[in-house]
Automatic annotation (TrEMBL), chain A:
One of its GO terms (cellular component) is plasma membrane. Its main location: membrane. Keywords: Antibiotic resistance, ATP-binding, Cell membrane, Membrane, Nucleotide-binding, Translocase, Transport. Residues 2-232 form the ABC transporter domain. SUPFAM superfamilies: P-loop containing nucleoside triphosphate hydrolases. One of its GO terms (biological process) is response to antibiotic. It holds the Pfam family ABC_tran. It comes from Jiangella rhizosphaerae. This is ATP-binding cassette domain-containing protein. Gene3D superfamilies: P-loop containing nucleotide triphosphate hydrolases. It is found in: Cell membrane.
Automatic annotation (TrEMBL), chain B:
It is a multi-pass membrane protein. PROSITE patterns: ABC_TM2. Belongs to the ABC-2 integral membrane protein family. GO terms for cellular component: ATP-binding cassette (ABC) transporter complex. The chain crosses the membrane at residues 35-61, 73-100, 129-147, 153-176, 188-206, 237-260. This is Transport permease protein. It is found in: Cell membrane; Membrane. Its main location: membrane. Residues 36-266 form the ABC transmembrane type-2 domain. It comes from Jiangella rhizosphaerae.
Length: 304, 269
C-alpha cells in the first residue's frame, strides 16, 4: 500500500523527516508513534499527497504522488489532526459536499451520507450545524466524512487526542470495524494504549528518524523486560535510590517522581528491594507496556 | 499520455482535477444558510444610483458622455455604479471571505485532501464570486432600466462585461489575500479601492483631468471597467471597447494562475 524509501522532508534548514524507510501492507493497521515534533504529521502529509517529499522515493497504492496525486487522493481517506469540518454546513451536508469533491454523483452521496451518519451514530444530529457538537461527535463526523469515497487506505493523524475515555472507546470500536472490513489503517498517536489497541505493526519516530519497528509485542520484548517494578520514595530526587537497587534489575530508569526497575519478575525484585532495608512509599509491579519502550527509546535519563 | 496533459505539465498551470464546480456547489449550500449578504450586494449600487444619479443629478443636469454627446447625469453615472459594484463584490468575496476560509475555517486543508487541486480552488472560488456578481448586476440593470437610465439594447452585454470586471478583480484579490497576515492588512485593500472608486472617471469624464495625469487614471483597471460598461449602456459601441476587454481578460487570467500558484505554495508545503 505504502512504500517509502529514504523519504525525507525538509523545511528550509529544518529536517522534519530524515530518510525513513516504511512499508505498509494491505489490510494492516500501521502506527507512527513518537513525541510531538518527531515528524509523524509531516510523514502523514506526504502520504496524503498534500506535501511533496524533499528527497527519497514514495509510492502509494503503487502510484507516484508527484504525478498521480489526484488519483491517489481519490482512494484515500484522511482524518487530519485538527478537525477541519465545514462549519458553514450542517452535519449531513458535510458528508454530501465532501463526497462531491470526489466526483461522486448526488444520488451516490445521498445514500452514502445516510449510511455514514448511522455508522458514526450521528443520524439524530444530521441537520444540526457542526459548531455545537461535542469533541467526540466532531471527530466521528470527520471520520465518517473521510469514508465517503470508500477509501482503501485511511490516514488518521492523532485520531483520539483530546477526547474523553468514552469517546475514545467508541472511536476505537469504529476503527476496528473498518479494519475488519478490509480498510488499511495508518495512524499516528502518542498514546501508547491506543497503539497497543489498534496497531498490528508500528514504528517509533524521534527527531525525524525511525528508532524502532515491529509489532507492539515484539517491541516490548526487544526494548523492555516482561515486567516493570515502580518504586516511589519519600524524596524529591530519586537518583540516590537508583544506585542502591541498580544491580537488582536489568535496567533502572529514574523519573522525577519514581524509579522504574525493568525486570522479568516484579514481585521477586520487590522482595529483594525490601530485603535491603529500603522502604518505598509505594511499590507496584506491572506488565511492561509500549509506554516503557517509548520512554526508553525517545529519551530519558538512564541508569543501567 | 495525452497531448493535453503534456502541455498542461509544460505550462506553469497548477494542478487540478477539473472538479472546481463542486466547490461552487459547496459555496451555494453555505450561502443558503447566510443569504443576508445577498441583500447588501443588491442594494449598494441601487442606493448610489438614486443618491448620486437621481438626487445629485438633478443639480448637475446633463454631462458630456464623450464625443460631445450629452446625457442626463443618472444615465452617465449608472454604468459606473454597476462597474464599481462588480469590483467591490468580487473584491469582498475574494478577500474577506477567502481570508476567513483560508486562515480560520481551514476549508482548503480538507478540500486539498480530496482529488481537488489548487487550480480547482482558485477556479471554483472565482467562479462563485462571478455567479454572485451576476446576480447583483442583473438586479441592478433591471432597476436602472426601470429608472429609465438605460439607453440601448447593448446594455444586455453589460452583464457579461460586469462578470469580466468581477473576474479580473476576484483573481487579483485572491492573489493579494494569500499575502495577508491579519485583519489589519485589509486596510491596504481599502486604500487601493477607494481612490479607484472615486477617480476612475466614475463620477465625471476623463476630460476633467489635466492631460498630464490622464494616463494614471487610464492605467487603473476600474477605469476600463467603467468605460466598457458606459459604452454598452449608452449604446456607444466602437471597436475601441475591445481594448478595455483585453485589459481585463489579461488581468483575470494572470490573476487566476497566480492565485492558484499561491494557494499551492501556502497549503501544499
Amino acid at each position: 500500500m505504502i512504500s517509502a524509501h529514504r523519504l525525507t522532508k525538509r523545511f528550509g534548514e529544518f529536517t522534519a523527516v530524515d530518510a525513513i524507510d516504511v512499508e505498509v501492507r494491505r489490510g494492516e493497521a500501521f502506527g507512527f508513534l513518537g513525541p510531538n515534533g518527531a515528524g509523524k504529521s509531516s510523514t502523514m502529509r506526504m502520504i496524503g499527497c498534500v506535501s511533496p517529499p524533499t528527497d527519497g522515493s514514495l509510492r502509494i497504492l503503487g502510484l507516484d504522488p508527484a504525478t498521480d496525486g489526484p488519483s491517489i487522493r481519490a482512494r484515500l481517506g484522511v482524518v487530519p489532526q485538527r478537525d477541519t469540518l465545514d462549519e458553514e454546513l450542517t452535519v449531513r451536508e458535510n458528508i454530501l459536499v465532501y463526497g462531491r469533491y470526489f466526483g461522486l454523483s448526488r444520488a451516490q452521496v445521498r445514500a452514502k451520507a445516510d449510511e455514514l451518519l448511522e455508522f458514526a451514530q450521528l443520524t439524530e444530529r444530521a441537520n444540526s450545524v457542526v459548531e455545537p457538537l461535542s469533541g467526540g461527535m466532531k471527530r466521528r463526523l470527520t471520520i465518517a466524512r473521510s469514508l465517503v469515497n470508500d477509501p482503501e487506505l485511511l490516514l488518521l493523524d492523532e485520531p483520539t487526542t483530546g477526547l474523553d475515555p468514552q469517546a475514545r472507546h467508541v472511536l476505537w470500536d469504529r476503527l476496528f470495524r473498518l479494519k475488519r472490513s478490509g480498510v488499511t489503517l495508518v495512524l499516528t498517536t502518542h498514546y501508547m494504549d491506543e497503539a497497543e489497541q489498534l496497531c498490528d505493526r508500528l514504528v517509533v519516530m524521534d527527531g525525524g528518524r525511525i528508532v524502532a519497528e515491529g509489532s507492539p509485542r515484539e517491541l516490548i520484548a526487544l526494548h523492555s523486560t516482561r515486567e516493570v517494578l515502580e518504586l516511589r520514595f519519600a524524596a524529591d530526587d530519586h537518583t540516590p535510590y537508583a544506585a542502591k537497587v541498580t544491580d537488582l534489575a536489568e535496567r533502572v530508569e529514574v523519573l522525577p517522581d519514581r524509579l522504574l526497575l525493568y525486570t522479568d519478575d516484579g514481585d521477586a525484585t520487590a522482595a529483594a528491594v525490601q530485603g535491603r532495608g529500603l522502604e518505598p512509599l509505594s511499590v507496584l509491579a506491572r506488565r511492561s507496556t509500549l509506554e516503557d519502550v517509548f520512554l526508553h527509546l525517545t529519551g530519558r535519563t538512564l541508569v543501567d | 499520455m495525452s497531448a493535453v496533459s503534456t502541455i498542461a505539465r509544460a505550462l506553469p498551470i497548477p494542478a487540478g482535477a477539473g472538479l472546481a464546480r463542486t466547490l461552487v456547489e459547496r459555496n451555494a449550500r453555505a450561502f443558503r444558510h447566510g443569504w443576508v449578504t445577498l441583500v447588501s450586494g443588491v442594494f449598494e449600487p441601487v442606493f448610489y444610483l438614486f443618491s448620486l444619479g437621481v438626487g445629485l443629478g438633478a443639480l448637475i443636469g446633463d454631462v458630456d458622455a464623450g464625443g460631445g454627446r450629452m446625457v442626463e447625469y443618472a444615465a452617465y453615472v449608472a454604468p459606473a455604479m454597476m462597474a464599481a459594484a462588480a469590483m467591490n463584490g468580487a473584491v469582498f468575496d475574494s478577500t474577506f471571505n477567502l481570508f476567513f476560509k483560508l486562515k480560520y475555517a481551514k476549508l482548503y486543508d480538507s478540500v486539498l485532501a480530496t482529488p481537488l487541486g489548487p487550480r480547482d480552488v482558485a477556479v471554483g472560488e472565482i467562479s462563485w464570486a462571478l455567479l454572485r456578481g451576476l446576480l447583483y448586476s442583473t438586479t441592478f440593470l433591471l432597476v436602472a432600466a426601470a429608472a429609465g437610465v438605460v439607453h440601448s439594447w447593448w446594455a444586455l452585454l453589460a452583464l457579461p462585461a460586469a462578470s469580466l470586471i468581477g473576474l479580473a478583480f476576484a483573481a487579483v484579490g485572491m492573489s493579494v489575500t494569500t499575502y495577508l497576515r491579519s485583519w489589519q492588512d485589509f486596510d491596504y485593500i481599502q486604500l487601493a479601492l477607494l481612490p479607484m472608486f472615486l477617480f476612475s472617471a466614475t463620477f465625471y469624464p476623463l476630460s476633467t483631468y489635466d492631460e498630464s495625469v490622464r494616463w494614471v487614471v487610464q492605467a487603473t483597471p476600474l477605469y476600463h471597467g467603467v468605460a466598457m460598461i458606459r459604452d454598452l449602456m449608452l449604446g456607444d459601441v466602437a471597436w475601441g471597447i475591445l481594448a478595455h476587454v483585453a485589459y481585463l481578460v489579461v488581468m483575470g487570467v494572470a490573476g487566476v494562475l497566480f492565485a492558484a500558484r499561491r494557494i499551492e505554495r501556502l497549503l501544499l508545503r
